[in-house]
């Protein structure tokens, strides 16, 4: 591998002092245009990377963590999903507590984000957060590893990439909340949420749901399931379809609280009451879920803890300490929408 | 291997000049939206890669906006105030739409943040957002201006620093919501929120409240006011004090929704009902305020619009276009907690 070009190399080739190089690269008016152009051309030819400031040159540290946000491309492009917003807040706060700045960048899964931070000194490490087709970006993780880029990701353990995944036990969460509904006496069910392999969080919740129903002999192949994305609209329309088909079950299990909000909204416009006629449960425990009428039974993803663990694991990786995958336990939050008032 | 696409290729296909391509890819407002979209689409189709370093060398642009967050030092250091979190989400989204990254940095008002971004190429401009004693950082704005740093701030117009303030009409909001309560027949009042000059947003809301009461002959010097910061706890304790003094008024005006949440919580534990015995109103229209029981009457601060205006004004300033202060109108959101159901 070739050695990195330094400002000294540029100075030598351009026949100027190092401080002139520095000024020219900063476009200082103290250096005439012709010299500026020449220095900048040589810098480009040498593939010289400007570091953000002198102290960064010495330490190679930016004291910045990059957060790459991948979004469900179908989501509303004018607002951020409340679960991600909560994670964004928690990660921002955890960075501040560690005296790091946070560089937030929206990315498309298809883009070359894995190369973006390769040599630049923009950030000391990367947090990957988002919904989307995990399988399609899995190979990019290998590239990050080859580059020696420090990163952690929000998601389930992946045996090909050990030590970089912090996630919530979605399978257990789906299982526990479904079994709770069974124990409350509910016998017919519907699941609203995509259960395909490109949405691994939802798929794991759905698998837990299926296994809980199977354990109690309640699973059948024709138990309704809707390939909904995480929006209120998806939940709203799924309920409309159930009502049209006169197929409203005893209990509706939603893959996210946002879907459950839409379900509650559709049921308020129907002759059916929650939880008397139909139980509804969500997933995430976003802030509003404690304030709905009835208050929503859900599974907590502790975003505050998640942000802390993501940032602290990344900082350990940056410090070249050993890091581990972390699977946060799923925590059932029992409120009124499932028919139980926890009393 | 195919040869790399150049900006010349894009210019040729788009039928525009190379400099228009460059501006369009940098999302310069000098290029109209339609052309920007077309150029960016062609660039994506050609899998065109901007050489970040070379391009930054030429333009001295980082394509990054810095968000400096100043916090009420008394706030809970494990979470972000929901109003700020909503602003953070909206600013992040507006940056993404403009293809800018966002560098988020928590700051203490006392720190030398005004010098931090002076010579560094970390960001093309700065957004200042936060509660705190405005008077204590006013002189730092002068220094930013002298440095030629591009910045905008969330807050009221300041005649010493024209063109950099985007804010909400807090005075009008305080006036309107109070007058609404008066028109509903309420005659005795209390205000919960700091009304000192170091909290200019709350002070303006309080002044609007006082003027509305005065207009209707309802203002007296001994109308209770509590120097509360924006937390649930502040609201909770203020109500406890009112109850102990047997001084519960007809209506409680809170300087923020978070305070109002604490007020509602304290009243739920009391023999008094909202809105039958006492009306409660908030300020901000944070997401949960539509879900409380009863739903909270409040004044909307449109964070989605605010984020867009902050980012777009800053981008104009960076592009050396003329910019203006912007005072967003206060919008009354009438729900049930004031006794009116808007019917």
Automatic annotation (TrEMBL), chains A, B:
Pfam families in UniProt: LacI, Peripla_BP_3
GO molecular function, one term: DNA-binding transcription factor activity
SUPFAM superfamilies, per the entry: lambda repressor-like DNA-binding domains, Periplasmic binding protein-like I
Keywords, sorted A to Z: DNA-binding, Transcription, Transcription regulation
PROSITE patterns membership: HTH_LACI_2
CDD domains: HTH_LacI, PBP1_CelR
Keyword Transmembrane helix carried by entry: no
Residue ranges occupied by any HTH lacI-type domain in the UniProt entry: 5-59
PANTHER family referenced in this protein's UniProt entry, alphabetically: ALANINE RACEMASE, LACI-RELATED TRANSCRIPTIONAL REPRESSOR
Name listed for the protein in its UniProt record: LacI family transcriptional regulator
């Amino acid at each position: 591998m070739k050695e990195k070009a330094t400002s000294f190399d540029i100075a030598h080739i351009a026949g100027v002092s190092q401080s002139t190089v520095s000024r020219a690269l900063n476009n200082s008016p103290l250096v005439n245009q012709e010299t500026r152009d020449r220095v900048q051309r040589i810098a480009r030819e040498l593939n010289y990377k400007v570091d953000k400031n002198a102290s960064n040159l010495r330490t190679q540290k930016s004291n910045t963590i990059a957060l790459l946000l991948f979004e469900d491309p179908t989501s509303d492009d004018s607002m951020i999903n409340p679960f991600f917003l909560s994670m964004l807040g928690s990660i921002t706060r955890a960075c501040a507590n560690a005296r790091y700045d946070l560089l937030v960048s929206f990315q498309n899964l298809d883009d070359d984000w894995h190369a973006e931070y390769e040599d630049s000194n923009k950030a000391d490490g990367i947090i990957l957060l988002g919904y989307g087709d995990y399988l399609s970006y899995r190979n990019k993780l290998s590239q990050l590893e080859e580059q020696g880029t420090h990163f952690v990701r929000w998601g389930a353990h992946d045996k090909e990439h050990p030590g970089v995944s912090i996630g919530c036990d979605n399978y257990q969460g789906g299982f526990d909340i479904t079994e709770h509904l069974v124990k409350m006496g509910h016998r017919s069910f519907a699941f609203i949420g995509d259960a395909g392999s490109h949405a691994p969080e939802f798929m794991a919740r759905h698998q837990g749901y299926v296994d809980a129903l199977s354990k109690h002999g309640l699973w059948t192949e024709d138990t309704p399931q809707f390939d909904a994305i995480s929006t209120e609209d998806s939940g709203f329309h799924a309920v409309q379809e159930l009502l049209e088909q006169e197929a409203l079950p005893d209990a509706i299990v939603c893959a996210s609280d946002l879907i459950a909000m839409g379900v509650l909204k559709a049921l308020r416009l129907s002759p059916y009451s929650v939880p008397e006629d139909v139980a509804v449960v969500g997933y995430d425990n976003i802030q509003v879920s404690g304030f709905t009428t009835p208050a929503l039974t859900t599974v907590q993803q502790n975003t505050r803890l998640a942000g802390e663990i993501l940032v602290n694991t990344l900082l350990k990786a940056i410090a070249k300490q050993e890091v581990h995958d972390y699977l946060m336990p799923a925590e059932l939050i029992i409120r009124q929408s499932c028919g139980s008032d926890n009393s």
